[in-house]
Amino acid sequence: xQSLPWKTIAMAAAxxxxxxxxxxxxxxxxxDKITELPGQPHVSFNQYSxxxxxxxxxxxxxxxxxxxxxxxxxxxxxxxxxNGGPGCSSLGVGAFSENxxxxxxxxxxxxxxxxxxxxxxxxxxxxPIGVGFSYSADSSSYMSVDDKITARxxxxxxxxxxxxFPQYKHRELFITGExxxxxxxxxxxxxxxxxxxKEELFNLKGIALGNPVLDFATDFNSRxxxxxxxxxxxxxxxxxxxxxxxxxxxxxxxxRGSVSPMCSRVMSQVSRETSRFVDKYDVTLDVxxxxxxxQSKIISPQQVTVSLDVCVEDETVNYLNRKDVQKAxxxxxxxxxxxxVCSNILDYDMLNVEIPTISVVGLxxxxxxxxxxxxxxxxxxxPLIGSRSLVHKLSKELGLNTTTPYRVWFEGKQVxxxxxxxxxxxSFATVRGASHEAPFxxxxxxxxxxxxxxxxxxxxxxx
Length: 463
Fold this sequence. Notes:
Blueprint: H1 6-16, H2 19-22, E1 47-55, E2 60-67, E3 78-82, H3 90-99, E4 102-105, E5 108-111, E6 121-126, E7 135-136, H4 147-164, E8 173-178, H5 181-196, E9 204-210, H6 216-229, H7 235-242, H8 247-255, H9 261-274, H10 312-320, H11 323-328, H12 358-366, E10 371-376, H13 384-398, E11 402-411, E12 414-422, E13 426-431, H14 438-441, H15 443-455
Parallel strand pairs: 3-6, 3-8, 8-9, 9-10, 10-13
Antiparallel strand pairs: 1-2, 2-6, 2-7, 4-5, 11-12, 12-13
Helix pairs in contact: 1-4, 3-10, 4-5, 5-12, 6-7, 6-13, 7-9, 12-13
Function: Probable carboxypeptidase.
Signal peptide: 1-28
Enzyme class: hydrolase
């Protein structure tokens, strides 16, 4: 099984041992409190944002945005949200486009009625260093970043964040996210579990992975079947896309800088038939041609100029580049002229995408931590076909019997999706009509899914 080496864990542990010496230099939470974001409606909950230094020597600091629960935050769990890419912002995508309390609309913010802070205290982390407002004074920190570095930094971030917010130190903790967070989250959870064997610091209660990259070949190669079954490609193209050059082979060649003539021909044919005017992250959604690129662009190198959110990211980019907004967020741009959704200075080792993390998910389940894998069923980037088969295969490997047979679930008086549960600890669910970013495209259904996940309750069987 692929897992983080003890050297990485030891390095993280060594950094955490410094915590006792940092008590006096870490800012207290009141200094990070947001008085009010420009243009926001009145709300009763508290918001905080700022930096946590994860490396004093190179002045490496991760930026966070924290929103307390709308009602009775003391009784609600702490949930970390991570977006993927690798290299895309949890602030801009997660908080301001998906499940945060506000969404930009022109010069103002409008209330998101299906914000996840209705059910939890939400912590959005811009990771790794070089993403969004997260920065390093040493530009070499942006070079050769990989999964191990990211996991270690995220662990140190959270331990030091608890110094700012000690009231959350022993709170029930969940980690959620989507896309390449299918790498970030399991590896962070694994570090937490191993660190807890030395010192009980993280009260981890579950992880939820949305349209996640878990196994490179399975996830990527299910794209061909998804395209064909949804009528986006012809029979003949489906055949060459599964025999002459499958998608994982193409991506592997692309990131090694040498695309073969065969793969080039196959991908040209696939792209021609699917059309750049169909959003690959939501095949039913209209596209916004001038919009910025989304987190999925990073792992879909052949896609250009289309985005999954029909221009909402443009609103976010404009809002987060306002000086008054950055001041309210206690944010600053270091070595950059502009905040971007996905980093253009981060040099991430993209070959890490080929390292399976589904085995790490297995280790987490063996440690007794519940796992939910959910899929927006309109996403062709990381289709439900691959995720469902990976979860089923893992259940067999772990000897988990089906405890909830495959069935429909409801939100309101509509079908919310389908679900299956194994051993009451490993769950799979689809979100009907949802894109790669399910909380954006189906906010009501995603909130029902999120609430059930936190409460360890079955998804609604009736309406």
